[in-house]
Specification:
Helix content: 40-55%
Protein name: DUF7738 domain-containing protein
Number of domains: 1
InterPro entries: DUF7738 (IPR056640)
Number of helices: 2
Order of helices and strands: HEEEH
Number of strands: 3
Distance between the termini: 71 Å
Radius of gyration: 27 Å
Organism: Apibacter adventoris
């Protein structure tokens, strides 16, 4: 009977202890894009929404299929 009481106490303590441990907050993603309610930026440069395609080329560079 005493062994059962000790076993139940230890199991309860282990369950309580594992629930009280704090988890690390999620690490923010490392990305080149930033989106806010007011603007979208790429590498710190504001994206020219609604402007000609040539403005986008200035930010992203010329298109090529090479990696």
């Amino acid at each position: 009977m005493r062994n059962n009481t000790v076993l139940i106490f230890l199991l309860g303590f282990c369950c309580f202890y594992t629930q009280c441990q704090t988890k690390e907050p999620p690490k923010p993603m490392d990305t080149e894009f930033t989106i806010t309610p007011c603007q979208i930026t790429y590498k710190g440069k504001e994206l020219p929404l609604g402007k000609p395609f040539k403005e986008w080329i200035k930010i992203f560079g010329e298109y090529n299929r090479f990696v």
